[in-house]
Amino acid sequence: MNTSRITRALVASAAAACLVGAVAACQDSSSDSSSTTAKTGGGGEIPKGLKTVSMPKQLGNPYEELEHSGVTEAMEELGGTNRVVGPTDAGASSQVPLINSVTQQKPDAFIIAGNDPNAVAPALKAMAKAGVKVVAMDSDVAPDARTVFINQANTQGVGEDQIKLVCELVPKCTGEIAILSATANAPNQNAWIKVMKEVLKQDAYKGLKLVKVAYGDDDDQKSFQEMQGLVKAYPNLKGVIAPTTVGISAGARYLSTSPFKGKIVMTGLGTPNQMRKFVKDGTVTAFQLWNPKDVGYLAGFAAANLVAGNITGKEGETFEAGKLGERTIGKDGEILLGPLQRFDKANIDDFDF
Ligand code: RAM
Fold first, then answer.
1. Which residues form the domain of 266?
2. Residue 19 confidence (pLDDT)
3. Pair 283, 163 in one domain
4. What average pLDDT score do residues 165-169 get?
5. What is the dihedral of CA 124, 129, 131, 137, to 10 degrees?
6. 76, 119, 180, 286: which could join 242 in a potential S-S bond, CB 3.0 to 4.6 Å?
7. What are the two backbone dihedrals, phi and then psi, of residue 183, each rounded to the nearest 5 degrees?
8. Of the candidates 55, 95, 90, the residue with the CA atom closest to the CA atom of residue 71
9. Which amino acid residue places its CA nearest to atom 10 of ligand 1?
10. In this structure, are 161 and 284 located in the same domain?
């Protein structure tokens, strides 16, 4: 772990602490209710001046940066502010000390993409006890450690769509395939992989054989090496699914200068900007994703509505999510963004993220 960058993240968040802390202190001690009643009123109005902190799996991942910029956009639209604080690696417990430090700052709400469902749970529960609304997005944490979870796409749908796509791309939908994932603990990737394994049992996919799940830890270099390792270890490999933007771009970069370019299918979840050159040079035919910024935007509106008391996280509750319209809370506090988008040569230039 790069401690100096972690320190920098901590210092940055500590700098925010006075601002956020001052507002929180104001709310706690103020006898003038005008600035505070709306925060618990539940009357539909979102109070101005909300402070949120959002935490990506790790800093420096363009996907995560975009996603968290969506939280910031939502908060600004609502007259509040968001601050992004995160670790430099996606390790299971790298977020814990940062979560503890945010708790000290007492923002109104906290939004997290979890690196591990359970490692972060005690720290998140302590934060909620301190009065901060906790929202998970992108990569869920233990359900009792957050109020709602913004799911970018239905878990079953992501698993199914990824297998459907690899089947379409691998000639005759037959041969060995592998998965190049993020970290071994990643809640979102693990949920999708579980679905993929189930879907592969269906008759339609009986020609495909999953030979290995490799982990690139959402680290570009490690993912590149794992891709190289897969190709060497499985000479008959026909396709690789990387359900991570870091994995698919590193995997495609490896293939693009290897003799396997155009011979091994590389697909998965990627951002159009990271994948454009590999689609244009023929390394990648098609991949999928949702709009990451909208994941954060929806999380920002959910957080603000929780603080306002408009929702509590119960199934069936609804709220207005700005440009995304009305949203309904589903089972286990899940709020769904929408279906996957497919990207290929025909449409990749229509997207800029
Ligand atoms: C990576 C992260 C993120 C995931 C995307 C698809 O950027 O692992 O959590 O949702 O890929």
1. 155-289
2. 33
3. yes
4. 98
5. 20
6. 180
7. -90, 160
8. 55
9. 138
10. yes
Q: List phi, psi (to 5°) of 140.
A: -70, 155
Together in a domain, 41 and 97: yes
CB 114 within 8 A of CB 120: yes
Number of Cβ atoms within 10 Å of the Cβ of 346: 10
Backbone angles phi, psi at 76, to 5 degrees: -65, -40
Place of tokens 């600004």: 76
Pair (63, 147) in one structural domain: yes
244: Cβ below 6 Å to ligand 1?
yes
The atom number, within ligand 1, closest to the CA of 182 reads 8
Report which ligand 1 atom has the smallest distance to the Cα of 289: 6
Q: Per-residue pLDDT tens for 202-240?
A: 999 999 999 999 999 999 999 999 999 999 999 999 999
* Dihedral sign for Cα atoms in the order 221, 344, 151, 20: positive
- pLDDT value, residue 167: 98
State how far the Cα of 282 lies from the Cα of 211, in Å rounded to an integer.
Answer: 25
For atom 6 of ligand 1, which residue has the closest CA?
Answer: 244
pLDDT digits (tens, 9 = 90+) for 2-42: 333 333 333 333 333 323 333 332 222 223 333 333 333 34
In tens, the pLDDT along 38-97 reads: 333 345 799 999 999 999 999 999 999 999 999 999 999 999 999 999 999 999 999 999
Please choose, from the candidates 21, 26, 183, the residue with its C-alpha nearest in 3D space to the C-alpha of residue 89: 183
Task: Give the closest residue (by CA) to ligand 1 atom 11.
Answer: 244
pTM of the model: 0.84
- Distance from the CA of 139 to the center of ligand 1, in angstroms? 8
**Residues in contact with 140: Cβ distance below 8 Å, sequence separation at least 6, in sequence order:** 114, 117, 146, 149, 151, 187, 188, 191
| Res 6: pLDDT | 34
Of 289, 313, 332, which residue sits at a domain end? 289
